[in-house]
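User: Fold this; tokens only.

Assistant: Input:
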Amino acid sequence: MQPWLACLYIDPACRGKKLGAILLDHGIEEAAKLGFKKLYLQTDLEGYYEKYGWVHRGKVFGASGNSIPFYERLFSQSLLLFILYLLS
């Protein structure tokens, strides 16, 4: 499974300004430009990514044996067409 979005963090003093949403959109656009049709992430933050179309798909396990939820974001056909338009 690839690509993975990782290390998205907004300083608490800067939260509430839609910066996370902007960074998520940028990651999706960049992955789409590279030809990917979906993106994955793992997080223990519940309820945030679902607001932006991410779907819980299961759990991944680390070397310690602990699990963490992982999510998938499928790109819409309209987004993919828009990216193709921008690149042409």
